[in-house]
Amino acid sequence: MSEITQSLAQARQVLAIEADAITAMAARLDHRFDAACALLLGCSGRVVVTGMGKSGHIARKIAATLASTGTTAMFVHPAEAVHGDLGMIRAEDVVLALSYSGESDEVLAILPSLKRLGVKVVALAGRADSTLVRAADVWLDAGVAQEACPLNLAPTASTTAALALGDALAVALLDARGFKAEDFALSHPGGSLGRRLLVHVRDVMHAGDALPVVRDDVLLRDALLEISRKGMGMTAVVDATGVLVGVFTDGDLRRALDDGRDVLATPVAQVMTHAPLTIDADHLAAEAVQVMEQRRINGLLVLDAGRLVGALNMHDLLRARVV
Fold this sequence. Notes:
It is a single chain. By secondary structure, the protein is α/β, with parallel strands linked by helices. The protein is built from 14 helices and twelve strands. The protein has helices spanning 2-28, 31-41, 54-68, 78-81, 105-117, 131-135, 157-177, 181-186, 192-198, 201-204, 220-230, 250-258, 285-295, 314-319, and strands spanning 47-51, 73-75, 94-99, 120-125, 138-141, 213-215, 234-238, 244-249, 273-274, 278-280, 299-304, 307-313. β11 (299-304) and β12 (307-313) form a beta hairpin. α1 (2-28) crosses α7 (157-177), α2 (31-41) packs across α7 (157-177) and α3 (54-68) runs parallel beside α7 (157-177). Residues 205-263, 272-323 form the CBS domain.
């Protein structure tokens, strides 16, 4: 029990130290953060993020966050840069260099080349008097009072602070660009958000020969055959000109049978639902889900410029993983 208690105490201390580091860093933010944002926003090339060791891992994550939130960014390893990867960097780029000490040999080694190219450098570092900070165009102070490591050696609070400051940059740039959820979805097409924001009704609807549809002058029997053939639990009903006039569903069938209707003699127009709910083909599939859930129905007919073009049900949306 004493070991668990010690572990809990240690964990809480680590979290407290790292939380204090971020809070203190937030209080120090000043015009230099605005200057860094201005440089990155004005960049006509890419934001190149670099760092060595633990700072390199954080740099990779910052580059990924920037790239997914509207800022063209990539990570370049400083050790690889001095062996040819500097060719990836152009004069129109901006370099975001991470080094807590500001004295990482691999990062410092690429500074002369960056200067010759005329590349602007933003330093995310913890020491104001370091070589990296003195060479940078803008310094973002990521200093911490202490590491969370009890030996005060392993990068812990300092890497957390650097990561948080990178997130602050990314979000500030996102806001300045007017970046929206739809933009985020474009770079995340495989995720649930991408599916909700990129999949449209026309992408999942039944169309052409797969669309269940009958004329309004056919008998109930013919509508049942169409429902059976197309397997959607409903069929659209159109007039002689192809204009949608109703829908006949499983529910309509049950009500017709309860009323004693003869399936061999009753016109479908007498038992169909008039003015059925529809959705536009260009609407998001997620909107179809919302309509179905609110109205407690399992299917919708789809229109394009007022003409019937498709049908979809909840099973289609489940298969598309929109639900």
